[in-house]
Automatic annotation (TrEMBL):
Known pathway: Carbohydrate degradation; glycolysis; D-glyceraldehyde 3-phosphate and glycerone phosphate from D-glucose: step 3/4
Entry protein name: Pyrophosphate--fructose 6-phosphate 1-phosphotransferase
NCBIfam families named in the record: PFK_mixed (TIGR02483), PRK03202.1 (NF002872)
UniProt cross-references to HAMAP family, sorted A to Z: Phosphofructokinase_III
EC main group: transferase
EC number: 2.7.1.90
Family: Belongs to the phosphofructokinase type A (PFKA) family. Mixed-substrate PFK group III subfamily.
This protein's encoding gene: pfp
Notes on activation and inhibition: Non-allosteric.
Primary location recorded for the protein, binned into one broad class: cytoplasm
Length: 342
């Protein structure tokens, strides 16, 4: 049995832990051979491979990023893409494909498995934690930890200057990172894409915080949008997923706060710092368990399935369950933290 492995989409701390677990168990317990595909779906599409064996995965557990490289190449958008993948897998003697990715990578895996009979197993990853069918994705805990540490640091500088500090975190469609890091870091306002925000309300929370002699911290997810739609976007373009990319909400909000409250405000955009570097212990634990269960799916011939975390158990679900809709923050979860605002 020869197993191909690829990592697609934005990178995420914990990808290497999955690769290591898959290879270690696959070689040591089942005697499988492996082929690594470079740069997500580009690898099988172009037959671009990298050797994947025990020595290749030595020492990679604590390393961020992915030793296989990643890309947003989508074979479904390319003429003859599926045919080329099937031909390359056959030529390389690859019997099964473990695809580690988010909604786009897994969306391709679902269609390849369900419609074209390519034996794919899915492993969910994203720092955004917005994939359905799994309680958590690895990478999220690391991102929340980084954002929380940043918020802790921003509190002291905000207080020294009695300024408002706006922290923009990742999350185009879901506010999980904003919600968890904002709560853990003691933010005074948390704004998420799921709930349009009222700038006046934000300013009144900010003002009441100053009245209590504290400098406010506002955490805003990059995808958060104001209610009245009066936001002037610095840049509106399509990102490499083809999604509309709205940038600059943190910067825009800080300006609005200054204008409306008369208080000085600064913005910190955490950006890709949230995605880089070593994974947290939780993410290594989750990614490793996902890897161990993914190779078992291959052993069982259980294709078209994705491994997922339910409580503390790893289960198998149809990949399509994860990609059918995004897992967003429900209003009750958001309301729960409102008591800390202001
Ligand atoms: O999907 C993960 C994510 O980190 C989002 O939170 C963010 O908007 C996006 O990727 C950034 O993508 P890129 O690395 O292509 O700029």
């Amino acid at each position: 049995m020869k197993v191909g492995v690829l990592t697609g989409g934005g990178d995420c701390p914990g990808l290497n832990a999955v690769i290591r677990a898959v290879v270690r168990k696959g070689v040591q317990e089942y005697g499988y051979d492996f082929t690594g595909f470079r740069d997500g779906w580009r690898g099988p599409l172009e037959g671009d491979t990298v050797p994947l064996d025990i020595p290749a995965v030595r020492g990679i557990l604590p390393r961020g990023g992915t030793v296989l490289g990643s890309s947003r190449t989508n074979p479904l958008q390319q003429q003859g893409g599926i045919r080329r993948i099937k031909e390359n897998l056959a030529a390389l003697g690859v019997d099964a494909l473990i695809t580690i990715g988010g909604e786009d990578t897994l969306g391709v895996a679902t269609r390849l498995a369900d419609e074209y009979g390519v034996p794919c197993v899915g492993v969910p990853k994203t720092i955004d934690n917005d994939l359905s069918a799994t309680d958590y994705t690895f990478g999220f805990d690391t991102a929340v930890g980084i954002a929380t540490e940043a918020i802790d640091r921003l509190h002291t500088t905000a207080e020294s200057h009695m300024r408002v500090l706006v922290v923009e975190v990742m999350g185009r469609h879901a506010g999980w990172i904003a919600l968890h890091s904002g709560l853990a870091g003691g933010a005074n306002v948390i704004l998420i894409p799921e709930q349009r925000f009222d700038v006046e309300q934000v300013c009144s929370w900010v003002t009441s915080r100053f009245r209590a002699s504290y400098a406010p911290i506002v955490v805003v997810a990059e995808g958060a949008v104001p209610k009245d739609g009066d936001m002037v976007l610095k840049d509106e373009s399509l990102d490499s997923y083809g999604h509309v990319r709205l940038s600059g909400v943190g910067e825009w909000l800080a300006k609005q706060i200054e204008k409306r409250t008369g208080k000085e405000a600064r913005t910190t955009v955490l950006g890709h710092v949230q995605r880089g570097g070593t994974p947290s212990a939780f993410d290594r634990w989750l990614a490793t368990r996902f890897g161990l269960h993914a190779i078992d799916c291959v052993r069982d011939g259980d294709f078209g399935k994705m491994v997922a975390l339910r409580g503390t158990d790893i289960v198998r679900v149809p990949i399509a369950e994860a990609t059918a809709r995004l897992k967003t923050v429900d209003p009750a979860r958001y309301e729960e933290v409102g008591v800390f605002f202001g």
